[in-house]
Structure formats: C-alpha cells, structure tokens
Amino acid sequence: MLTKAALVNAALDQSIPLARPLKIHEAMRYSLLAGGKRVRPVLCLAACEMVGGDQSLALPMACATEMVHTMSLIHDDLPCMDDDDLRRGLPTSHKKYGEDTAILAGDALLSLSFEHVATRTPSSVSPDRVVRAIAELGSAVGSAGLVAGQIVDIASEGDVDVTLEDLEYIHIHKTARLLEAAVVCGAILGGADDESVEKVRRYALRVGLLFQVVDDILDVTRSSEELGKTAGKDLASDKATYPKLLGLDGARRFAAELVGQACEELAGFDPVKAAPLYHFANYIATRQN
C-alpha cells in the first residue's frame, strides 16, 4: 500500500503544475494532494497486476480515479450538499478558497481525469481498451453512478421511511461504483478477459459497499480527530445509515459478510498476484479512520 500510494502521489503531483491561472491550480492541488490512503488508485494498480499487466499501464487511470474521487469530496462538502468544514484533517476547499473556486476546482479535476487517461496511457495498451476504460469511468461518475447516489442521498435526509434497499442503492452508486470502476479499469488496461473483468467487478462492488458500511460505523464510534473529518454528521443530519437501520452489531455482521463475499470472487486468480486485493478487503473492514 505504502509503495503504491507513494507512486500515485508522485504522479498526481506532476499531473497539475502551478500554472496560470494560479488560484484554480492551487485549489486543485490543495484537495488532490491533501493526503488520503489512495484506496481507489492503489486498487486500480493491484487489479492490473493481478491479471498480468504492468502497473505502468494503469497508472494514468489510477490517477484519474483519484481526481474524480477528490472532485466528489469537494462538491460533497459544499454548503448546498453535506456542508462540511473539515476534510482529511484540513479545512475543506470552499472554506479555504471560497465556494466559487471550490466548484470550479472540482469541475477542472473531473475534466482533467479523462484527459489524463486519454493522453498519458502507454501506447502499448490497445485503443479499444482505453476507450472501454474511459467509458467505464464515465458511467461510474454520471447519472447512473455517483450523481445518482448523491441526489438520492440528499432526497433521503430526514426521511423516516428509508429502507435498507434504499440505503444500498445510495451507497452502491455514491461510493461503490467509483471503486468498482477503479478495479475494473485496472483489469481492462492490464489485458483481462471478460470473465475476469466481471469477477473483479463483483469483488469491487462488495468492497465498495463494505467501505461505506465501515464509514457509517466509524462515524458513530470515532472522534473527528481520529477520522480527519467531522464525526457524527450523519446522526446530526438524521441520515439513514447502516448502524441506524441494522444496529451497530448488525452493521458489523454485514461488513463481515461483505468481506467473505468479496474474497470468494478472487478464488480463481493466482493467489500470489491476488494477495493485495485480499488484503484490501480485510484492511477496509478493519480500518480505524
């Protein structure tokens, strides 16, 4: 994780030079380079290597997934969305640069993500695989992906009739779809066949949902200092969460089920090459921030 994250961080640093107009590039870099575990890009590289590709083939896509993720955080923190002042232990983008610059920084990161994949992916990857990966990333972000999850999430705030099915829809789209795209794109760019792509897709969907279940658990069991973001916000805003609908013990049991299901999807791969993805499922289940 540390080795891959360092590689990704170096590539992200090079992806946005401090050019004119300075303010927007500073704001983009501020949020993109603020830290984080780089879960999505590292999974992208790990999936590429698991199917036999070299990580260099997927590094531009790995960076792109982090750009998209950072965009989603910038927009999610805005007053008109979740209205948060803290992200990764730092003031959120709109608190530091203003709402106008924060919105534009998110827009610019989203645009750059697709440009980065199109222009930086090595020529040894066939054009049809690059296009397929770009389409996969696009579908994860738009109205059938992240945006769908976000708008249903907003509409569900304070709704006492939100069901477990509704909550799963929100988090599959808002969280799991982008993580799924990272893993699937890594496999596509690494040369995976269709059967392998679908196996890693099912793995990633479960890990993505697991990520959110654990996030919900941490929100009610950890402090803001431990999390690096405002703790207890979901409870304060009366949002539906897994601990709220299942109870804390029930949410923990559901997380354990998702780990088992995710690891089952990796059974057909070389266990040595698949080891990082096994590790990630267990790591995400046991993370503390």
TrEMBL record:
Similarity-based family: Belongs to the FPP/GGPP synthase family.
Record-level Gene Ontology MF annotations: metal ion binding; prenyltransferase activity
Co-factor requirement: Mg(2+)
PROSITE patterns with a match to the protein in the record: POLYPRENYL_SYNTHASE_1 (PS00723), POLYPRENYL_SYNTHASE_2 (PS00444)
Protein name: Geranylgeranyl diphosphate synthase
Upper classification of the organism: Eukaryota, Viridiplantae, Streptophyta, Embryophyta, Tracheophyta
InterPro entries per UniProt: Isoprenoid_synthase_dom_sf, Polyprenyl_synt, Polyprenyl_synt_CS, Prenyl_diphosphate_synthase
Cellular component, GO annotation: cytoplasm
Gene3D superfamilies in UniProt: Farnesyl Diphosphate Synthase
Keyword Nucleus: no
Family annotation (PANTHER family): FARNESYL DIPHOSPHATE SYNTHASE
